[in-house]
Design brief:
It contains 10 helices and 9 strands. It is of the alpha+beta class.
Length: 248
């Protein structure tokens, strides 16, 4: 089933993806916004992920911010103070730490690259349980949801299709060789999932997977007029230089 979903409906597919502290979705399809993904590479120049030696500072920032820089640098307990300072500067440069007007730093997942998330709840025949779970998971991390049921036992779900329509959850029939879409939910533009932390984690995971499969040499798809969108000429120059680097 996973391969069929990946081939037909999604960019990146994950099995048993967390939707909250105590819940997991059978399958999650993360749809990547290619413009956002490439813009993030070009803007921040980071296509290799978090350096291993900076993990402690990253974890400290993620769990304890907002903090003033002095306290943030004290918490990782590095043997060498310079390493903590390097990590801090890297996190700032790559938009993981944002400074407020009082000099405190807030943790931030930079530039989500996901344009949408489809959740799929798989059931052999218990369509009501599947519908309830898919509805919940959509509220938490999804922008749309489907219940996938064994085609030989999907009759009761089809009989109660109005309940799927009422909750705006799609329905699919699974056979040994096919996956048929019986009801497609209506798009809900602008709807924000509840579990923003899990969604941002999924975006980070998807971004690094995207970079692994699509080396930044393809950044030539960035339009030259994008430079003009930045009012700060120094930042525009840095972005222009970065585009030249990845094209080479």
């Amino acid at each position: 089933m996973g391969e069929r979903l990946k081939d037909d409906f999604t960019t990146y597919l994950y099995h048993e993806q967390r939707a909250g502290a105590r819940s997991r979705v059978d399958f999650v399809a993360a749809h990547v916004d290619l413009d956002r993904a490439w813009k993030r590479v070009v803007t921040y120049g980071n296509d290799e992920g978090l350096p291993r030696e900076y993990h402690r500072t990253y974890d400290t920032a993620r769990h304890n911010c907002p903090l003033p820089v002095e306290e943030l640098l004290e918490r990782p307990y590095y043997e060498e103070e310079e390493t903590a300072l390097e990590a801090f500067e890297w996190l700032v440069d790559n938009n993981y730490l944002l400074e407020d007007s009082d000099g405190w730093y807030h943790f931030n997942y930079p530039n989500t690259v996901i344009s949408g998330v489809t959740v799929y709840e798989l059931k052999m025949h218990k369509w009501q349980d599947g519908l309830d779970q898919a509805t919940t998971y959509k509220k938490m991390i999804g922008t749309e949801a489907y219940v996938v049921i064994d085609a030989n036992r999907i009759g009761p779900a089809i009989t109660n299709l109005d309940e799927f329509k009422q909750k705006n959850v799609g329905l699919m029939a699974l056979t040994r060789n096919s996956l048929e879409k019986l009801y497609e939910p209506t798009p809900e533009p602008g709807r924000t999932p509840r579990s923003s932390d899990e969604l941002l984690r999924l975006s980070e995971r998807t971004f690094w997977k995207f970079i692994e499969e699509n080396p930044p040499g393809d950044a030539e798809r960035q339009a030259e007029d994008e430079i003009g969108q930045f009012q700060n000429p120094y930042k525009a120059r840095r972005i222009a230089d970065r585009i030249d680097e990845v094209r080479e």
